[in-house]
């Protein structure tokens, strides 16, 4: 088997059917030629193919002897081929880097609705940890080969390449991705990544890191849906902890999606949803549903914070909901009808 032709699942199934077919033909042959029962025929085929040297279960006729010789010849050739193929596959999967890369690329091409994380530095690593908590599929693009190898060693899908290059983004499954998170260390790289990604896939939701205050406006202008300054957010959180520690603790508990039972969901109202045309409290009052509507974002950009119970729900509204996991799951079914 050539390293340029990795074994596919179809190949594995074919090998399995080959061995099974050999077993069936041998069993049928002994039953027809010698008139043996099923168990005796299967036993004879197994000890013959295994070449263990046990005696025959019954004396063989001349036709049975010829059939046994043919079965041994074909059996040894078949089993040798199967063992060799499986052995090469195991060795390649463990030691052949090209084979591992092909496997990884095949997995990436089969992904849909995943997130592409550009950069595995301090910020990118934390982003990946949050995606793992949520069980969200992702692909990492990292230019440093050592960091890329570290990601791959952890079993994560990671490409060693330049996130600003359109071929690398396409290789990461950009056209099937749900979102892209640009966490590169330089603002210029993040801007170029956003431009390239948005040009290739205009419907992609992009969150970009801004290392300076001035970069936020640039990133939003070139197509990022959200621009985040880690330093600005860090400073805000530190000040909030100092001034309002109780509020900060509550927000932390809510946003810790991996541990907290309380969740915040962002859900869009479809045109066929039973919510359309009715007031918030018809289905979404805390007393009825166990969830609270924090914000109603209209399609025109208007936001209604802490909406009253008689606020009408319109098609395309995005609702920010808070509640426990089970209640949110039940309410979200209304949006998906």
From TrEMBL:
InterPro entries xrefs: K_chnl_dom, NAD(P)-bd_dom_sf, RCK_C, RCK_C_sf, RCK_N, Trk_Ktr_HKT_K-transport
Main location: membrane
Record's GO cellular component terms: plasma membrane
Membrane disposition: Multi-pass membrane protein
UniProt GO BP: potassium ion transport
One Pfam entry name: TrkA_C
Name of protein: Potassium transporter TrkA
Organism: candidate division Kazan bacterium RBG_13_50_9
Lineage summary: Bacteria, Bacteria division Kazan-3B-28
